[in-house]
Amino acid sequence: MPQDPVITSVTDLASSDAKWVSLKKVEYIDQLGTARSWEIAVRKTTAKSGVDAVAIGNILLHPSKPPSTLLVIQYRPPIGKFTVEWPAGLVDEHESAEQAAIREMKEETGYSCKILDVGPVLASDPGLANATLQLVMMEVQLDEKESMPEQKLDEGELIERVVVPLSELYDRLMNWSKDDKFMVAGKLFFFAAGLHFAKQGNYI
Amino acid sequence: MPQDPVITSVTDLASSDAKWVSLKKVEYIDQLGTARSWEIAVRKTTAKSGVDAVAIGNILLHPSKPPSTLLVIQYRPPIGKFTVEWPAGLVDEHESAEQAAIREMKEETGYSCKILDVGPVLASDPGLANATLQLVMMEVQLDEKESMPEQKLDEGELIERVVVPLSELYDRLMNWSKDDKFMVAGKLFFFAAGLHFAKQGNYI
Question: Does the residue A186 lie in any domain?
């Protein structure tokens, strides 16, 4: 990358001036009949397809290399760091999560895939926002000589791709976290922690 | 529960009237030298301890029952459903994630624990917010006759606790998701997916 991104200002934004996010107040009656309220952040672009976003849990299988996963590293202004995440994207209006995952993977990597599992609609951050997502697990079978294909990115999208063997995923995420320039995304880390934990002992 | 919660209104909220959340505009220069901006949601209560929240990945060990985990079910106004999550909470100013996890687990369940792993600072939802969290994995050793102890909840906190064997976690989360009243929290599901995936085959 030619230079590190720099945040030049952080200013208050009136809801009415915001294009992408708004604040809402939810009034509700709780289980005991008490009137309460909650403040939430709402994306103005919330999908009409029933879910906002899809995360792509991908497994790359290669004839002579260990099973691996493709991660994306990109600058995220909300936290002012580079995040390490699985590829992800918003679900378009007439699309299923599965279709969105296949499309996004193709755009970000050029790979075609086989869907292994489509998870349920999940709450992304249920204390703060109404955002939802689905996890789509997919497998990509590579040929012996296959290398990384061309990306098809939108203008302004600067995404670096890194392939990590699954057996090293947890340790690699821990190592990235030691570098102040990077932050691992929560959901990817929780998946890695599940894998790591399953290998630890006689729990399951 | 005496009655189901009901949302009675959802209204626009001016940033200046909000007590808990605000909107900010981040201006930044990207890697190619282009000036760009991003809209983000920011908690007004952001922790001074370096991380906002802690999630408690807990394992209950019992002499004659399978290794299990304690989940909490609570009504979440941002999504208008009951979520299924691991116990979690905000980290106080002079507290580490580890201390917060021990305190929260004690408050929500009464259990004392042994810390297994403290994860790095993670981005909760890096496209939308600056919120961060850490995953603390802990083990609770129960006696043969030990039952669920008294909770110590704040006023207005209505939290149901459910114990699920780890070997059934993924399937149970899938089943909850089929009931329109419930939504599983993303991070818990990703952990369960990691466990589930590790059991599937010869990937790792």
Answer: yes
B148 is written with which tokens? 């669920």
Whether residue B152 contacts residue B107, with contact meaning beta carbons closer than 8 Å, is answered with: yes
Q: What is the pLDDT at residue B80?
A: 92
Q: Provide, rounded to the nearest whole percent, the portion of chain A with pLDDT above 70.
A: 90
Range of the structural domain that residue A141 is part of? 47-199
Please indicate, yes or no, if residue B137 is contained in any of the structural domains: yes
Residue in B59, B126, B156 nearest the CB of A203: B59
Q: Is residue B13 part of a domain?
A: no
Residues contacting B45, CB < 8 A, separation 6+: B20, B90
Cβ–Cβ below 8 Å for B79 and A123: yes
Query: Which of A15, A28, A178 faces B14 most closely, judged by CB atoms?
Result: A15
Separation CA B103–CA B136 (nearest Å):
12
ipTM of the complex: 0.92
Q: Is residue A188 part of a domain?
A: yes
Nearest-angstrom CA–CA distance, A54 and A132: 9
∠B76-B57-B176 over CA atoms, to 5°?
A: 45
Q: The domain spanning residue B152 has which CATH number?
A: 3.90.79.10
**CA-to-CA distance for A109 and A107, rounded, in angstroms?**
6
Token duo for residue B57: 């990945």
Count of domains forming chain A: 1
**pLDDT number for residue A119:** 96
Residue type, position A54, single letter: V
Nearest to A122 among B35, B178, B184 (CB): B184
Nearest to residue A98, comparing CAs of A50, A164, A157? A50
pLDDT digits (tens, 9 = 90+) for B134-145: 999 999 998 887
Q: In this predicted model, what pLDDT tens digit does every residue of B48-76 receive, in sequence order?
A: 678 999 999 999 998 888 999 999 999 99
How far out from the chain centre does Cα B123 lie? Answer: 13
Q: Which chain B residue shows the shortest CA-CA distance from A133?
A: B186
**Within 13 Å, how many C-alpha atoms sit on residue A170's CB side?**
21
Check B41 against A129: CB less than 8 A apart.
yes
